[in-house]
Amino acid sequence: MSKTNKDENEGAASVEEISERVLGAVWEHRLPPGTKLVEEKLAAVFGVSRTKIRLALARLSHDGILTVEPNRGTFVSSPTVAQARQVFDARRVVEVALLNQLCGQITREQIARLRKNIALEADARARSDRRATIRLSGQFHVLLAEVGQNPYLEKYMRELCALTCLVIALYDAPGTPACPHEEHVGIVDALERGDAKAAGALMVEHLDHVERTLRLEMPQEAEIDFDAVFG
């Protein structure tokens, strides 16, 4: 079967589906930072042409999730310490604004969706299912944007959460839960009360907490002993 015919099959994955599955693998740390994504292998896995794989990877590269290195290939991005801090700075601005928008207009059904996600996250944590815990923890923040019914914010939050997963994979302190679900509960409680100030403060505190658990100290430059080098 030709590559073109593969893509024309009714069951062939679309560019968007491939992008979402790669993104999901990044979220769950199944594709760690620095992983090289080989087009031929992915084309075989998804049963599509390399052209479709290339388009899917290009989307994620545009969002910063992947990095294209000339003459080397496409890799899962490895954010620097400075970039990691910028991700959290962006999230503090975007998510507080999002909560301000949601307060006073969020419905009972939307609150129930958020609480269901929190319950699933707590269950995954109790079962020590790290991949599911990471996915559901990030999904909570994306769900906030989704219930706000702003597709642009939702897209931006997906990108920021994926970048946060990369940051956690690189700088996580072993044994430290990066995103305690109890803090999600407090945010939803404040949303349900319509208390935008409290919800925003809790979100900032929550993101600060996550950032503090990471090892984001800038490495000190070693002083070169030129006498030892050239003596």
Q: Can you offer a commentary on this structure?
A:
The protein has helices at 3-8, 15-27, 39-46, 50-62, 81-102, 108-126, 130-147, 151-171, 181-193, 196-212, 226-230; strands at residues 36-37, 66-69, 73-76. With 231 residues, the chain is mainly α. Strands 1-3-2 form a 3-stranded antiparallel β-sheet. Strand 2 (66-69) and strand 3 (73-76) form a beta hairpin. The longest helix is centred in the middle third of the chain and has 22 residues, at 81-102. It is globular and about 55 Å long.
In a few lines, what is going on in this structure?
The protein is mainly alpha-helical and 231 residues long. The protein is built from 11 helices and 3 strands, in the order ααβααββααααααα.
**pLDDT averaged over residues:** 86
* H/E series: HHEHHEEHHHHHHH
Number of helices: 11
What kind of sheet is the major sheet?
3 strands, antiparallel
Low-confidence stretches: none
The gyration radius over C-alpha positions equals: 20 Å
Structural class: mainly alpha
Structural topology:
Elements: H1 3-8, H2 15-27, E1 36-37, H3 39-46, H4 50-62, E2 66-69, E3 73-76, H5 81-102, H6 108-126, H7 130-147, H8 151-171, H9 181-193, H10 196-212, H11 226-230
Antiparallel strand pairs: 1-3, 2-3
